[in-house]
Design goal:
77 residues, alpha+beta, two-stranded antiparallel sheet, 1 helix
Length: 77
């Protein structure tokens, strides 16, 4: 799997951090909450410069390519 290039948001695609997690009937990776809907997590490399996340626009760009929007803040693992 490889994320595509997105020059309009300053991102060169990559495969090392290209990952998707589908959470069915739960909003958390810990599976500790029940939900009636599903959550998709996009995993992208993030870089913090001067306290600002510079890869977050790429996550928004990926979601937009599928007609979706990012509904939550980025998480660090």
């Amino acid at each position: 799997m490889r994320w595509p290039d997105a020059p309009e948001v300053g991102f060169s695609g990559e495969s090392q951090h290209a990952e998707v997690t589908l959470l069915v009937n739960t909003p958390t990776r810990e599976l500790d909450e029940h939900a009636v809907d599903h959550t998709v997590l996009l995993h992208v490399r993030s870089v913090c410069v001067d306290g600002r996340e510079i890869r977050e626009p790429y996550a928004h760009w990926l979601a937009e390519q599928m007609g979706l929007t990012v509904i939550g803040p980025g998480q660090r693992w």
